[in-house]
Specification:
The complex is a heterodimer of chains A (197) and B (83). By secondary structure, chain A is an all-alpha fold. Chain A contains nine helices and no strands. Helices cover 64% and strands 0% of the residues of chain A. The chains are: A mainly alpha (197), B mainly alpha (83).
Chain lengths: 197, 83
Amino acid sequence: MVEADDARISDETLIGRTAAGDAAAFGRLVRRHQAAVYRFALACSPEGAEKIAEEIAEEILQETFRAARAAARRHRDEPSALPWLLAIARQVAERRRTHSREPREADLASLRELARAAGWGEPSRLAGGAPDAHAVESALAALLPEDREILTLCDREYFTVDEAARVADASEAVVRARLHRARLRLAARLREGSHGD
Amino acid sequence: METERPVAGIHCGEVLADLTEHLDARLGPERERRVGEHLDGCERCRSLREEIAAAVCALRELPDEPLPPGVEERLLASLTMES
């Protein structure tokens, strides 16, 4: 657990101390952000929320903090270390999936096709109530890692578009477009799931 | 292919492209006004906005799960080994 005093020490200070070789400061930084890094690593993992994805996420988690410790001196001053850590995690995940990358059929779908799948032009299914957590987790697991990644950054970690763009190493316009498509795909998956109820 | 007529001077396809920016309040005031007027008069775009909003809302309400058992211990051990 994080000690009460930890909250008063900024990420910036902890990273500075880490760069100077302070193992305890690094340990505090790890404990502060490990859950968010793991959550993001899970989103980046190719198999979704299955056992193998958890193993991959754990490896990404470990590699991320090893790389962060090595790069602590090069960290630029920011109030939160999380965008920096997630950018590292993303690079680690990207290296892992480079070899298995193949053309994504869904990437080529037009916005109109995505919107139709999400229910555009059909009666809303909201009469059945908001989707529950289990339905959302299943829908997320069925998405492409790229979609889970952007949704995790923007709709779970509440990053700004600028922060998400830095993590994703993309322009803000690209992040906005990816977020919109990912939300449409999520809505479509939830809609599909509700058909089976 | 659906027939499409402009509502409040904008076609559905344009509004479709702006829905995430609209939901996140990132449209400029004039664009927001026009998109809002379109949504007021267009059932299918309004319905899609609600579908997306519901999905985003449900996603944001997911609980932050703790790390699975053993992950923190293995992480700290791996970092200690390499220090």
